[in-house]
Amino acid sequence: MARKTSRSSPSRASRDSRKIPQPRLSPSQTAALEIYDTTLRDGAQAEDVSFSAEDKVLIAQKLDSLGVHFIEGGWPGANPKDIEFFRMIKTIPIKQAEVIAFGSTRKASNPARKDPNLQALLAADTKIITLFGKTWSLHVTDALGISLQKNLALIGDSIAYLRGKGRRVFYDAEHFFDGYKTNSDYALNTIRKAVEAGAERVILCDTNGGTMPWEIREICGVVQRECGVPLGIHAHNDCEMAVANSLVAIDMGILQVQGTINGIGERCGNANLCSIIPNLELKMKRQALTNTLSHLKDVSGFVTEIANLMPNKHQPYVGDSAFAHKGGVHIHAVLKNSATYEHIDPARVGNRQRMLISDYGGRSGLLDKIEAYGIRLSKDHEKVDELVHTLKERESQGYQFEGAEGSFELLMRKAMGSHKSSFQLLGFRVIVEKKQEDGLLLSEATVMVKVGDVVEHTAAVGAGPVNALDHALRKALEKFYPQLQEVKLLDYKVRVLAANRGTESKVRVLIESGDHKDIWGTVGVSENIIEATWQALVDSIEYKLLPKTRVFS
Hints:
This protein is 37% helix and 19% strand. It is of the alpha/beta class. The radius of gyration is 29 Å and the shape is elongated.
């Protein structure tokens, strides 16, 4: 349900502008914020993330369609994969964004014209280069092992050389906030040198992610008075402050904000653009994108998939749970007016409202879910009482239907008397065998089912007992239902319930299955993990075989 939004009061940035002298900017420089995405470089440094050059091209195209202004493609002087990316991206039409190469200032032992890193940056053939240099005196003396004055020369020489080759340069002041707090005069001198050499943006980096929002506000105010070019903010999330720090910096009048999709990045990650962008547009009333905010969830999911990561369902704005309601009081209120428990219309970021089925949901949540399947029942209908009772009983046994809506639909159909099982189990057996201490495990499953009047008895082997059971069941049924060949088991989760009972504890098995156009979850519960798995597998197949037209009697 769309809601009216009230006019916002003047931003704090505009109020502060009357108190703090602003950088000398042209009208074109102050027109709008700049969204700088570093998913392909800083995001790729996250643990468990490895992008191929092809992956990076696909993500770049997606970011371009979202409307970010700059895409940091990688560090061509660091690895061959990034060199290949910059070669490939030249042949790809990028319509809105500017692709940027990233690298470091020259080495102390190399003149700029002979520095391999600077030459690799030039070879990437981008219009803009983002160059980072040392701002924190600790890094200059302890990491580089050079004098503070020598470091200033590295910064100035490197930027001047790239500018002389016709490149625009953004300067990343690495560890700026730590450097400022240690030696403010020197930290400011490094960015003065960068501006003097021709940098057109200076990005203040909270590289260790340890700076607090009030420190960001104070230090940014000082730098704005000292720096004559537009500033940017690059925050890391080691204290869970990256988004807050980025927004405070923007509120202070900083032009460019850097971050990654889903906040992926080294250690605890980078500032999350999936939170920053909607906060800018919907909360701070600042233009970040051009009418593409509704694509945000799609881009978030795309990057998650390419990175081969598990989606964070609880992520603000774009997570599957961001607008999911479970408590009966919440559901009842949201169904009357979504503003009661939703701070925005989820469609604005490409998300959707969800009502979760659980024993907390009560009648309102259940009726809403039933209506989603095309059934309209009154609150006092006997089937509602039956369904509520069955649902609460199942959940008391350990079943959970929040991620198993396939099983829930089957449960509902059975209660409505509209579901007939596609097959009957006559028996199954699973054998796990290991003949030697260092020998391979062998898993074999046999299944006997009845379809109509036909009895089918099959056997199959697999990588494990679950895999073997899945293969055997499919093998038995595919001759009757060839569409099962389309189904793939996408995910398999096991949760031990009441662990104080040790090996006698119940387990809950949640299976995620999918075909070429749909994904569904199913659940099983038992003291025996194989039995729980069987329940979830059967529901998965039964769900696939449901009539395409969901009509209930």
